[in-house]
Amino acid sequence: MDDPIRTREFLDRLEQGDKIEATDWMPSEYRDLLIKQIHMHGISEIMGAYPEKEWVPKAPTIRRKLALNAKVQDEIGHGQMLLRLAEDLSRPYGRGREALMDDVIAGRVKFHNVFHMSAPTWADAGVIGFLVDGGAIITQAMLLDSSYAPYARMLKRIVAEESFHMQHGESVVLALAEGTDAQRNMLQEAINRWWEPMMFFFGPREMGRGSQRMMEYKIRTLTNEDLRQKFINRYVPRVRALGMSIPDPKLKQDPATGLWEYTDPDWDWFNKMVRDNSGPMSQARIALRRYAHEEQRWVREAVNHATQALAELPGA
Amino acid sequence: MDHETREALIRLITPIADDEWIVGHRGSEWLGLAPELEEDLAFSSIHQDEMGHALYLYELLHDLGEPDPDALVYARPVASWRNACFVEAANGDWAATVVRRYFYEMFDRLRLEALAHVDFTPLAHGLKKIQREEAFHLKHFALWMEMLAQGGDEARRRVIDAVAAVWPTLSDLFDWGLRDDVQAQLGLPPALALKDAWVREVRAQFQDWQLPWPGEIPTTMEHNGRAGRHTPALDDILTTMRAVRVIAPESAW
Amino acid sequence: MSQGEYPVYEVFGQKDRLAFHTHVGSIRAANPEMALQMAREAFFRRETVVDIWVVPQDAIYSAAQEPAYLPQIGEDKKYRLPSGYDNAPHWKRFKARAMSIEEVAEEMTGKRG
């Protein structure tokens, strides 16, 4: 149990708008919420690289190939930066990169629902940049003022890179919208595939206890529904401007409140998918991570071995 | 520029551009799969560099009268590609990838040095930037070679196996793909000199890393990428690469 | 701890020769040379730097856990600051103008601030 006096002092700091550093004392609940949030965020960035990675070898122009390559690389980079934060927070538990990555393979850490879905066409690669990155920016922008300073600092860097991703995604989508019937159809089908997952992306209307505690600790500042409304508000007009439709007949804005009515995603289905890794591509993508992490552990062991061997050489 | 010089330059630059492009393409297959996140980033940057070099060279070719870069990459028949078969082969495991990439980077360094003798300003201009980036690439893969060679039994065995597997496929790398008189006219050293220099450098490093020397590099005639005689692997790459574009070949993407 | 675990290095970059090295984040790497190569691509893909430092995380001692180690500059230390002085009206009495260090620097380097 945490010292109640220190906990009170900690909460006072948060109340005054003070920011927390990795080495500061913090209540174990705060630490655990942060680990859970940042671990999942980092792993989602890494798993989010895979649906687009499939399209790098097939990118239809040299420029697109370079840009998509750089974008997927950034996602891995974001994963790296976020995992470093989660690792520093997990230090008291003796858990580092290896353990946090093992969790993916063992299904002990969840990742965003959108990265369990398949991306069967080039248009999906564009729509992921357009809608998924667009949604991620909305969530991450809220976290820029997080009470945990290392997270807020890193997100500043991440959001700056995401703005390149957004431009890239929009550029791919715009080219398809300006293209042949085949290209426009491909785009519409991709939007149809991604809209419902995006409605789930921001989480349930009624937030769970963990999310509520995160708001109380000022780790996050807006509700799931706030974020979803911002997303709908921003993307409905843009999708329609392209002459594309949104696959939700219920979608309607209340002129008085400005709030959007929308069809609920299949909460149960998505929840189960994220919990059990039972989505269309969950297992295939975890298999890719398993290849990188588990099947190549020999490489990391070799580098540690070599480092030690070279340090022990006479004259080293 | 007379017709003959132009043709000679096109023949000189095409294999270099194609090597860099295919190396970049194969490298991008590792995205998200490298043995550590940090290496994933470094490896990806290196291969973006390679594709960037290819693009620069394809633009030079376009200035010399060849089709534009996208057409060269996305519309050229397989037999017109001049990359070495060595670079089109599948990646294999991390040890095989490191071995292939180290071999290529060492070759590329020597090729770039030789190209400094060619009197063609736009090429010389691009080579400066390319050389600086390639210097990092070589250091990177040499460090990986050292780590794996000194990395204990399993890593060492994997490296030695990988060297043995790629050794018989090296020979077309050293071919300029030019007639001897054209090559001499451009001021380039003979392919044999390039190969000898490569053997000297790699052999010295193998000694440092205590890796067994596999002996003479066998010459194979069956496949020679510089003459357009490729392995089926290049077909696979081109089919994959063009899978999206064929949906609307004339459209913007 | 797993045999595959690498130690952590904190990464610092220097933007130009006259800038200080600034902390940008951290990486895992087996040794300093690997760390330098990895740091470059982890944090400087979009910017030029003239130097990169990697420092083992365990080599860093932070003052933040001990509040007594942290400075709090109050009114009583104003004599250390240029704003703690009020020379301008006095110079005026001698029909001369007060000068700031920035003006001196500007004149010496020829740069406008």
Overview of this structure, please?
- The complex is a heterotrimer of chains A (316), B (253) and C (113).
- Chain A is an all-alpha fold.
- Chain A contains 12 helices and 2 strands; from the N terminus they run H-H-H-H-H-H-H-H-H-E-E-H-H-H.
- Chain A has a single domain (4-311), classed as Ferritin.
- In chain A, strands 1-2 form a two-stranded antiparallel ribbon.
- Chain A starts with a helix and ends in a 5-residue tail after the last helix.
- Chain B has helices at 3-28, 37-63, 69-74, 85-88, 94-115, 121-149, 153-166, 180-185, 191-208, 232-241.
- The longest helix of chain C is centred in the first third of the chain and has 12 residues, at 32-43.
- Chain C has a 3-stranded antiparallel sheet with strand order 2-1-3, with helices on one face.
- Chain C folds into 2 domains: 8-59, Ubiquitin-like (UB roll) (Roll); 68-107, no CATH class.
- Chain C has helices at residues 32-43, 88-93, 101-109, and strands at 8-14, 22-28, 51-56.
- The model of chain C has no long low-confidence stretch (mean pLDDT 91).
- Chain C starts with 7 loop residues before the first strand and ends with a helix.
- In chain C, a hairpin with a 7-residue loop joins strand 1 and strand 2 (22-28).
- Chains A and B meet through helix 2, helix 3, helix 6, helix 7 and helix 11 of A and helix 2, helix 3, helix 6, helix 7 and helix 10 of B.
Describe the structure concisely for a colleague.
Chain A is mostly helical.
